[in-house]
Structures are given as structure tokens and as C-alpha cells.
Write a structure and sequence with these properties.
The complex is a heterodimer of chains A (298) and B (325). Chain A is an all-alpha fold and 298 residues long. Chain A contains eleven helices and no strands. The mean pLDDT of chain B is 84. Chain B contains twelve helices and twelve strands. The chains are: A mainly alpha (298), B alpha/beta (325).
Chain lengths: 298, 325
């Protein structure tokens, strides 16, 4: 450095350099007790569900009519169903299905939605019109009929359920991302990126998507519960998981049938389901606050 | 052969209120290593001229209606996107007005700084990073090796503009287009940035187009100046010549509104009236409604014409020798 261009002396040596907006958001999220509690609860539940074969005290499919419909006891914490299956084990296994439907279908919808929306929004023009009209058409398909059709064509299949739900849920995501990208692409740094000779693909991947990720994450925490509700709804209708496998949806369905005589069959699965949705909503709320640009510095 | 030769560039915006002719028949040339200032008030078409060259005009509503811009045998206005991407950021770079919004807030400085190297030169990330650090040192960012890992919000405005300059120059371009890069900065930082670009220009031997509304900046930096008004060039000359023998009433009015050139205590001169509405066709000189020398004949079409070697004006009365300014 020559003397004629004085560099600005800065006392930054003690300050950690390279604090990203993500790290800022993470810091703010940790301050939010409800969000942290929600996250911990969901994580514990996910862990318990996926380790179900190790944790579950009984088999989820072994029937034993001799102990049918016993109330909660030390041997069967949540009681047993009419066929004598341990409800605690079934709830854990059910969580496996419900949570993985929630995660996988959300992931499918996020990936499709973000790519579709950012391409449509960034390229714009005629492509945008065509892509958005396709979304409109898909929106107008009645969901239940769509799923029934799929079931009829491909047979009952849990993966199909994931796919079907994901294929429907991405529409909202695509619209949200498109809107964000359309306002982002007028930012000067995008202009600067174009002036640097970056191609469209690189601009979308490097400059658009990281900037919409905050909103995508927030919205995803809202999709997970709605996907789990959809799964419960489909299972309730008999299109989802088939016995002896269980999901929270089917457990609640079974419980609802006999809630007057054996209320625990409804209470425990519903409690888990409701608590999960609750936690996810708190987490989503915390994330929205943490990632909101207006509350961040700069 | 000049490095860049722009001929009859016309750019307009098709809006609901009609066609706005933002750039109207602009021609100029730039030699290798030369410095050209483009001066004019807001809406004079100086930025649109340069954005047209880089094809950064949003289309629609913008449209490059005609003309050519030859850069090393390639017409920038007709080049394919692939050709353009090879030139942008590699042979022609640009720095922008507002350093606060020209950097992506989610990416580290390092990632953005070396991006042009990664896409234009086939070098490894490590080598690119080393050059990135050297480039930051060149533009006077202290502690560059550590600071390169920062995010934009951890830099001040002046520092960010230095980063933008480092980014623009990292590929050693032949032409740098600077779109009012000092406007958003305070005066002391302005001077540092000006000196910095001057130093980098000498080191790299690149040509510079400096867009500004500040005649003072031009005087200290540019070898040649062209003054734009209402989408046209109204006067072009070597910088000294422009100040010594001003040949257009608009240039004269601009000079009179520089506070530093006025006697102390005198009321600051302002140009009366407003710039013309560019969505209406303008016959003759666009400055007529605001010009103290305007006559009947000024409403006739007028072209930019040399009145001395290298000194051209679009004022009919000066061309005819009727007035001296």
C-alpha cells in the first residue's frame, strides 16, 4: 500500500470477522425459548420414532386378544387397542410414517417449488406466463380426486402418497418464491452479477436462491404440519397407510371410532400429533422472527 | 482503431405514457487507455447510454432502437448472450452508483470477489482467492486476508465501493465503466475512490468511462468530457478546453451552478425550468426553453459539429459564431 492511499485503520481485531446473516439469525433463534423448545421436542420425537425398533417395548403388529383394550398401565404405558396391540409402540411407529411423510413431502415440494418459482420469476416474460398458468391448472385439480386417480392407476403405495402430497404442496412454494425472485432481480447486485458476465443459471443458483431461503425455511415449517394433516386425512379416508402399519392419522381414526369406551386410544395419538404441530408452529414463528430482514442489522 | 466506437445509439423506453427516447443518436469513440467523462443531470441519458453498451437495459420496457457499438470488432448491441458474457466482467467491467446494494448480502466478500475469476479464467479456487486478497490490498482494504471472509454488512460504504472496484478490476479489463461510483459516498471517501481508480488505471492501462453529474469530479480526472442533455450530446471537448472555451449554453449553466466557482455570499445559480419531457418529439435544440440565448432559429434541427479540432458543440448560434460564452 502506497502512502498516498491511506487505508482506514479499524479496530476489528477482537471482533470475529465473517458473521453471516445466517449466523445472526441462528443467534436470534436461540434467544427464542418457545422456538428452541419446539425444535427440541420435534427432534426428540423424530429420534424416538426412528429408533422405534430399539425403543418400543412391544411389537406394533402382534395382536393378543386376551389383553384387548386395556387402559394405560405399567406394562402398556398408553394402553392397548381392541386387538391387544401396544399403543405406545404403535404411536412411535406411527410417528415414523407421519414425520417422514411430513419431511419427505415437504422436501419434495420445497425443491420443486424453489426451482420452478425462481426460474419462472427470474427469466420472466413468456416463459413465466406459461409456467404460472401450469401452476394455475394444477391448483384447480381437486386434490382428493387426484390422489384417488393415482391410487387407482399405481396401486396403494406409501411412496406414492409422499409424491402425491409433495406434488400438490409445491404450488404455493413456487408462487411465493417467484414473487420474491421478481423483486430480488431488480436489486443492484443482480445487475452487477449480470455485468460480471454471469449466466442465468449461476445467477439463479448463487444469487437468487440463497436470498429466498429465509422465506422458504419459514414457509416449510408451515408446510410440514399441513402435509401431516393431509396424510392423516388421506389415511382417515382409507387411502393412506394400510394396517397393520400405523400412522398418527390412522391411529386417530381408529381411536375416534371407539372414543366413548376407550378414550386413551384417541387421546394419546392426538396428543402427540397436536404437540408436534404446536412445536412446528412455534419453531416456524421463531424462524420468521429470526430470519426477518427488518429485524436484522444493516 | 478506437477501443470502443459508438455510432448513432438510440435507446428508448416503451411506457404507458408513450415512448421515452432516453438516448437519441449518440456517437462517440474511446481510445485505449483514455478517460472520458460523461456529464449531465438526472435523466440526461448518460447512464442509459452505458447500460445500453453493456446490454443491461431491462427489455421490455427498454429497447435499443438502433446504432452500433464496436468493441474490438464485436458489435456489443448485436452480440449473442454467449459473446456478451465473455466480454462482460472480463474485458469490460462496471462499477455502480450504490455500493450498499451492489453486493449480495448473503455471500462472503471472497465468494463475490473471485466470481469473475472463476467464470472467466480457468484457475483454481485457491489461486483465485490469493488474487482476491491481492486485489483487496490493491484497493486499500486493510487486513485483506482476514477481511475477505467478511460479509457485506460488515463493511462501510467506502469499503464496499473499494470491494466493487477490486471486483471490477480483478480480471484486468480493457474498459471500465463507472456509473457515478462516488455519488453515494461522502466527500473525503469520494476523493480516495477517485485517486484509487486513477492509480489503478495507470497500472492497468485501461480506458475509463466516468459517468457523473459533478463537473468538479470530471475536471480532476477525465482527459475528455462530453456533456449530455435530453438524451443527446450537446458538447464534447478536452477537459481544459471545455472549461476554458465553453461552447454550449447548457455547459455554461452547469459551470455556473458549481458552488466552489462562485463568489462567496452570492446566491447560487440554478438553471431555470425543467428538463424536457422525452416522450414528446423534440425539434431542434432541446435546451431552448431554458436557454437565455435562444432564438427562433434554435428550433431548427441541429447536429453536433466541430468548432475547433476535438471540440464539438450542438449549439447552432455558437457554431455560427453569433455568441461567445
Amino acid at each position: 500500500m502506497s502512502a498516498e492511499f491511506p487505508t482506514v485503520t479499524q479496530h476489528t481485531s477482537e471482533v470475529e470477522v465473517g458473521q453471516s446473516l445466517w449466523q445472526d439469525a441462528w443467534h436470534r433463534l436461540r434467544q427464542n425459548k418457545m422456538a428452541v423448545a419446539g425444535a427440541i421436542f420435534v427432534l426428540l420425537l423424530a429420534l424416538a420414532s426412528f429408533l422405534a425398533p430399539l425403543i418400543a417395548p412391544h411389537s406394533y403388529e402382534q395382536t393378543n386378544l386376551a389383553i384387548g383394550a386395556t387402559p394405560p398401565s405399567l406394562a402398556h404405558w398408553f394402553g392397548t387397542d381392541v386387538l391387544g396391540r401396544d399403543l405406545f409402540s404403535r404411536t412411535l411407529y406411527g410417528g415414523r410414517i407421519s414425520l417422514s411423510v411430513g419431511l419427505v413431502a415437504t422436501a419434495v415440494s420445497v425443491i420443486i417449488g424453489v426451482l420452478y418459482g425462481s426460474i419462472s420469476g427470474y427469466v420472466g416474460g413468456r416463459l413465466d406466463v406459461v409456467m404460472m398458468r401450469i401452476v394455475d391448472i394444477l391448483y384447480s385439480l381437486p386434490f382428493v380426486i387426484f390422489v384417488i386417480l393415482l391410487m387407482v392407476i399405481f396401486g396403494r403405495n406409501i411412496y406414492l402418497l409422499f409424491g402425491a402430497i409433495g406434488a400438490v404442496e409445491w404450488l404455493d412454494m413456487a408462487r411465493i418464491v417467484r414473487g420474491q425472485v421478481m423483486s430480488l432481480k431488480k436489486q443492484e447486485y443482480v445487475e452487477a452479477a449480470v455485468a460480471l458476465g454471469l449466466r442465468k443459471r449461476r445467477i439463479i443458483l448463487r444469487h437468487m436462491i440463497p436470498n429466498v431461503l429465509g422465506i422458504v425455511i419459514i414457509y416449510s415449517t408451515l408446510i410440514v404440519p399441513s402435509v401431516m394433516l393431509l396424510e392423516a386425512f388421506l389415511s382417515f379416508l382409507g387411502f393412506g397407510v394400510q394396517p397393520p402399519m400405523s400412522s398418527w392419522g390412522t391411529l386417530i381414526n381408529d381411536g375416534a371410532k371407539s372414543m366413548e369406551s376407550y378414550p386413551w386410544l384417541l387421546i394419546f395419538p392426538s396428543l402427540f400429533f397436536a404437540l408436534t404441530l404446536f412445536s412446528l408452529n412455534f419453531l416456524g414463528d421463531g424462524l420468521r422472527y429470526a430470519l426477518d430482514v427488518r429485524t436484522s442489522k444493516d | 482503431m478506437p477501443l470502443l466506437e459508438v455510432t448513432n445509439l438510440r435507446t428508448s423506453f416503451h411506457t404507458r405514457h408513450g415512448i421515452v427516447r432516453a438516448v437519441n443518436d449518440v456517437s462517440f469513440a474511446l481510445e485505449k487507455g483514455d478517460t472520458l467523462g460523461i456529464v449531465g443531470e438526472s435523466g440526461s441519458g448518460k447512464s442509459v447510454t452505458c447500460y445500453s453498451l453493456m446490454r443491461l437495459i431491462p427489455q421490455p420496457p427498454g429497447k435499443i432502437e438502433g446504432g452500433s457499438a464496436m468493441f474490438d470488432g464485436i458489435d456489443l448491441l448485436k452480440a449473442s448472450p454467449q459473446q456478451l458474457n465473455k466480454i462482460r466482467g472480463k474485458r469490460i467491467s462496471m462499477i455502480f452508483q450504490d455500493p450498499m446494494t451492489s453486493l449480495n448480502p448473503y455471500l462472503r466478500i471472497s465468494d463475490q470477489l473471485i466470481e469473475p475469476l472463476l467464470i472467466h479464467e480457468k484457475i483454481s479456487r485457491a489461486a483465485a482467492l490469493a488474487r482476491g486478497i491481492a486485489a483487496l490490498e490493491d484497493v486499500g482494504v486493510p487486513d485483506a486476508a482476514r477481511r475477505i471472509r467478511s460479509y457485506p454488512h460488515e463493511f462501510s460504504g467506502g469499503m464496499r465501493q473499494r470491494v466493487m472496484i477490486a471486483m471490477a478490476l480483478i480480471t484486468k479489463p480493457e474498459l471500465l465503466i463507472a456509473d457515478e461510483p462516488t455519488t453515494a459516498l461522502d466527500v473525503t471517501v469520494q476523493a480516495q475512490i477517485l485517486d484509487l481508480v486513477k492509480k489503478m488505471q495507470q497500472e492497468l492501462g485501461m480506458a475509463v468511462i466516468w459517468i457523473t453529474h459533478d463537473l468538479g469530479v470530471v475536471a480532476g480526472f477525465c482527459r475528455r468530457v462530453q456533456v449530455m442533455y435530453a438524451g443527446r450530446i450537446v458538447e464534447r471537448a478536452a477537459t481544459d478546453e471545455l472549461f476554458a472555451r465553453t461552447a454550449h449554453p447548457y455547459t455554461r449553466a452547469l459551470q455556473k451552478s458549481i458552488p466552489a466557482l462562485q463568489p462567496k455570499g452570492a446566491a447560487l445559480y440554478t438553471i431555470p425550468g425543467m428538463p424536457p419531457d422525452l416522450s414528446r418529439p423534440i425539434e431542434g435544440c432541446p435546451f431552448v426553453p431554458r436557454c437565455e440565448f435562444a432564438q427562433e432559429q434554435c428550433t431548427q434541427p441541429v447536429a453536433l459539429k466541430d468548432i475547433a479540432p476535438g471540440h464539438a458543440t450542438a449549439c447552432l448560434r455558437v457554431q455560427k459564431g453569433e455568441i461567445a460564452l
